[in-house]
């Protein structure tokens, strides 16, 4: 997998797998994985064409179409996906103590 290795790759694959049933169809698993991975990689622009180029350099055109469909047309609920993400992530955060405040830092993965 581009940009990840060892335990990070395994953890990422497990995380994405837990989101697949929320997006409504198993055929959306690969575009979900590629989209999430592309957002984390050091790509100058975070639009689907550069993400397609970095996640599938040998088949940019078909990956571009797949990502466009996944992001813009596939019928999945962003609310359900965000709820699942919260269900997965919040317990990991809260095991270090209760959440007292949220600090949102959008500079970690610039868009």
Walkthrough of the structure:
Helix content is 56%, strand content 0%. With 111 residues, it is an all-alpha fold. Helix 2 crosses helix 3 (48-55), helix 2 (29-40) crosses helix 4 (60-72) and helix 3 packs across helix 4. InterPro entries: IS701-like (IPR039365), IS701-like_DDE_dom (IPR038721). Residues 19-111 form the Transposase IS701-like DDE domain. This is SRSO17 transposase.
What is the structure about, briefly put?
The protein is mostly helical and 111 residues long. It is built from five helices and no strands.
Provide a count of the helices: 5
Q: Can you summarize the main beta sheet?
A: none
Name the beta content range.
under 5%
How many discrete structural domains? Answer: 1
- Morphology: globular
Query: What's the helix-strand series?
Result: HHHHH
Helix content: 55-70%
Mean pLDDT: 87
By secondary-structure content and strand pairing, the structural class works out as mainly alpha
**Roughly how many Å is the radius of gyration?**
15 Å
Strand elements, count: 0
- First-to-last CA distance: 21 Å
Low-confidence stretches: none
Q: What are the SSEs and their pairings?
A:
Elements (H helix, E strand, L loop, with lengths): L5 H12 L11 H12 L7 H8 L4 H13 L5 H17 L17
List keywords for this structure.
mainly alpha; 0% strand; 111 residues; 56% helix
